[in-house]
Design brief:
- By secondary structure, the chain is an all-alpha fold.
- The chain is built from 9 helices and no strands.
- The protein has a domain of 128 residues: Tetracycline Repressor, domain 2, CATH 1.10.357.
- The N and C termini lie far apart (46 Å).
- The N terminus is likely disordered.
């Protein structure tokens, strides 16, 4: 990876507007993900990404000044998939019991971590060098807001405090499982569910 440049880490050169350009933009990001899964984080370079995406290096540079920005955009994409998955799970189970609503949110988070485990582990490792702390905190707040809203629907006391604890607990267990190379989503979901329900019933 190139030396970190705080002024450029969080910014692409421009955002694509036309459908064809947006598709190419996404192809570039996905190419980086495939390289990470195949060869590891250290194999990501602008030339390798352009070749894998099937675009010219000039086309890549229209949007991405370096591979660090590509990795930052990939990290954002994966975070948004997680946020959307958890929020959607909460809405889909509005009529279920609190336990089942929480179970859906846990399953969504576990599914995201284990869907592409090598990618998730690599991005967790790279995150510290991408200077995305503020964005990470905002995403965490969004997820906690979804959990707190779910708890309030069922009249659970201290919903905000409980949401913070539950999210921290689940994140710790899920991240640790990912780093350990676990692949059994059902078993991991069951463990996180037991911990979460134990907390709620205390």
């Amino acid at each position: 990876m190139t030396t970190r440049d705080p002024a450029s880490i969080n910014r692409v050169r421009k955002r694509p507007k036309q459908a064809r350009s947006r598709a190419m933009f996404e192809d570039i990001i996905e190419a980086a993900a495939r390289i990470i899964e195949r060869d590891g984080l250290g194999a990501v370079s602008t030339n390798a990404v352009a070749e894998t995406a099937g675009v010219s290096i000039g086309s890549l540079y229209q949007y991405f000044p370096n591979q660090v920005v590509i990795l930052a955009e990939l990290t954002r994409r994966e975070r948004e998939l997680l946020r959307e998955g958890v929020s959607s799970a909460s809405l889909q189970r509005e009529d279920a019991s609190m336990e089942h609503a929480l179970e859906g949110m846990i399953e969504a988070a576990v599914a995201h971590q284990l869907a592409r485990p090598h990618l998730a582990r690599a991005l967790d490792f790279a995150e510290a060098s991408l200077d995305l702390i503020a964005e990470t905190e905002l995403m965490g707040e969004d997820i906690m807001t979804s959990v707190a809203a779910m708890l309030r629907r069922y009249g659970y006391p201290r919903a905000d405090e409980a949401a913070q604890d539950l999210v921290s607990m689940a994140k710790g267990m899920i991240d640790a499982a990912g780093l350990a190379g676990e692949t059994d989503a059902a078993a991991l979901s069951a463990r996180v569910r037991r911990a979460a329900l134990g907390y709620l019933r205390y």
